[in-house]
Amino acid sequence: MNPIYKTFSTLSGFYVYDRSTNSIINIERNEFDLLNKNDNQTIIQFKKKGYMKDNSIERIRHLSTDYLKHYLHNNIEQLTIQLTQNCNLRCSYCPYMGGYDNRKYSNKIISIETIRKGIDFLFAHSQNSKQIAIGFYGGEPLLEMPLLKEAVEYIEEVKEGREVVLTLTTNGTLLTDDNVEFFMKKSFQILISLDGAKEYHNANRVFPNGEGSFDVIMKKLRHIKEKYPTFFSKLTINSVISTNNDLSCSNDFFNADEVLEQLVVNMTTLSEHNSKDSILYDDSFKIINDFETCKAYLYMIGKISQRHVSKLYKSSIGQVNSIYKTLEPHEIKEKETHPGGPCLPGVSRLFMDVDGNFYPCERVSESSEIMRIGHIDSGIDIVKAKYLLNVGAITEQECINCFAFNFCKACCSSADGNTELSREKKLANCNNIKYSALTDMKLITMLKKFNYNFEESAYEEK
């Protein structure tokens, strides 16, 4: 017998996660102890109830492997276009600043010919996609506003009734009435980077002369709110909380600032992926992060009002509901399957750099040969895309026997070895993935214990 399961306990009870049915089962203390000893008789009793079936997986191979060519020809959903590798800021944690291995600043600008080829490629390979998205990225894309306008003009010429969503990621310092009115007219979705209170924003997000960008951005946002209130209300803020940022201070800033009060704020932390140095957050960050996350959970179970939930942590609610969907019961019967981490390379969020090279998304390393899955003149390399899709194959035996199989978030970028996928790099992430999976399961059992209704997604505000 070789069923894959994981026992865990919380303050409210004892549980076992059964991978064969993707189910969490509330068990007695004696069952918990016996399962921890892999007691055969106890396992047999669970088998009789339909749980703990023998591990059927013999090979790691993604179920979409044989269909990937079809998806890449017909189902591409998004193209992100890098307009330039230049930027008017020099943010300390930016991948282009040298602290990461994946990017570097340059004066390169994409040509309109390459943009048109990219747009043509997207429309030609998205016939089955009901809606497609085209994003503009940098560097700082607003440095090339005339080029961006020319790209949008071309999109309108060739879209022929297709539903196209236009997006832009910007540092916000170059926003003007002219381009705001253009974005309004073209219904752009805009993401603006703002890290929090002035002291901490300016510690990282600076102009080349070292001056902070906070006052410039806030002046722009205040003006947009006054002159274009409808457009302003649809903006989204991205806040990067770096290791030298006081989370408590930034948290208070976003909750209290009158200019930003109506905007959605997404919080991100620095990633160690491709970083040349270790990224360590201090204990105060962890304490505040846990406290604010806990308040979001207390709101979910109806114990506090929504007004007590920090804007930086409201996204936690949607994340929990996504985790719950991962736990939808299903039986693993396939001999050949793959952990749940990778998206379909090139299908979900294809990225094109200034030279016309294709990558699975904008988050991977542009200097990595293995992440370069094609070029606008030659198309996408199906063999390489399949290789990246099947990243789990490089740790096949570990994946076959892992309890966190259904929770795995490891994609090809976590195993980027520059010229090939790296087994060592992928395995280095496994303990964090298992820890995260176990934490997620404990959270789900706690919320269900307090009668949180996952089907309705949220409680009415008290």
UniProtKB/TrEMBL annotation:
Q: Which GO terms describe its molecular function?
A: 4 iron, 4 sulfur cluster binding; metal ion binding; oxidoreductase activity
Stored PROSITE patterns: MOAA_NIFB_PQQE (PS01305), RADICAL_SAM (PS51918)
Q: Which residues form the signal peptide?
A: none
Give residue ranges for domain Radical SAM core: 73-314
| Annotated keywords | 4Fe-4S, Iron, Iron-sulfur, Metal-binding, S-adenosyl-L-methionine
Q: What is this protein called?
A: Radical SAM core domain-containing protein
Q: Which domain of life is it from?
A: Bacteria
Q: Which InterPro entries match?
A: 4Fe4S-binding_SPASM_dom, Aldolase_TIM, Cys-rich_pep_rSAM_mat_CcpM, MoaA_NifB_PqqE_Fe-S-bd_CS, rSAM, rSAM_sf, Sulphatase_maturase_rSAM
Q: Which co-factors does it depend on? A: [4Fe-4S] cluster
- Record flagged with keyword DNA-binding: no
